[in-house]
Amino acid sequence: MTQHRSAFYSWIRQPIAKTVEQAKLAMESYVGKRNNLSNPPPGAQAQWIARQKDSVEEAFENLATLVSQVHAALVMVDCVGGAALSQPGGRASRRLG
Question: What is the pLDDT of residues 42-54, one digit of tens each?
């Protein structure tokens, strides 16, 4: 039988907090870019829309990466509730897309 070991929260609290702050900024960026795409300026050309779509996808991937990092850190410290809330692909992340 293998022994389960977890990290101490105090070891990774600051990196988690930093990543959460980065995720907040990434979420604001994603929402702003998504809003720009959903409300194109009059006369927007297909090329502009394609660039905006790429920008939205890139912003979402950045946000998903940050959330995954937070989730992994919370799993390491056995924070079951926090890990469940930050789980990539959960209900909250599906609402963003």
Answer: 999 999 999 999 9
